Amino acid sequence: MIGSDGEMVGVLSRDEALSLAQEEGLDLVEIQPHGDPPVCRIMDFGKYMFDLQKKANAAKKKQKQVEIKEVKFRPVTDSGDYAIKMRKMREFLEEGDKIKVNIRFRGREMRHQELGREMAEKIERDLGDDIVIESRPRFEGRQMVMMIAPKKKQ
């Protein structure tokens, strides 16, 4: 048995351990039930559970939920719109979010898929070395899809 101060008390019967815990106004908690003999500790169990909950909440607060942001392009997206979308993509990457780049083809644009590939390569070039391409550009129906993630910082 372990006392409330963390010191080893010794091997006691169950009744002796319970009476010792009641004298101190604390709880007798079984720490290692499968040990021979089982190990118990005198502690304030409510305070212990409160501290565990507080630690769990603090760890949860520090986590960042990664979101997937979607940015849509067309093969004929003009340079002004392209610059604005690139600026937004850099902001998303700085926040640690992933980006789904969507290049949509309409009508006869499907015959010029090389324009979409060039657009995807240009996006990759312009974002530079601070990205990881999770999935290369691939077709899903009438749109080309590419996934980009920020590079992990050491």
UniProtKB/TrEMBL annotation:
Q: Per its UniProt record, what NCBIfam families does this chain match?
A: infC
Query: Alphabetically, which GO biological process terms does the record hold?
Result: ribosome disassembly
An example Gene Ontology CC term for this record: membrane
Instruction: State the family it belongs to.
Output: Belongs to the IF-3 family.
Q: What is its main location?
A: cytoplasm
Residue intervals of the Translation initiation factor 3 C-terminal domain:
66-151
Alphabetical keyword list = Cytoplasm, Initiation factor, Protein biosynthesis
Q: Which organism is this protein's natural source? A: Lysobacter defluvii IMMIB APB-9 = DSM 18482
- Give the matching InterPro entries: T_IF-3_C_sf (IPR036788), T_IF-3_N_sf (IPR036787), Translation_initiation_fac3_CS (IPR019813), Translation_initiation_fac_3 (IPR001288), Translation_initiation_fac_3_C (IPR019815), Translation_initiation_fac_3_N (IPR019814)
One Gene Ontology molecular-function label: ribosome binding
**Oligomeric state and partners?**
Monomer.
Q: What is this protein called?
A: Translation initiation factor IF-3
Its biological purpose is as follows: IF-3 binds to the 30S ribosomal subunit and shifts the equilibrium between 70S ribosomes and their 50S and 30S subunits in favor of the free subunits, thus enhancing the availability of 30S subunits on which protein synthesis initiation begins.
Subcellular location(s): the record lists: Cytoplasm
Gene name per UniProt:
infC
Residue ranges constituting the Translation initiation factor 3 N-terminal domain according to the UniProt record? 2-58
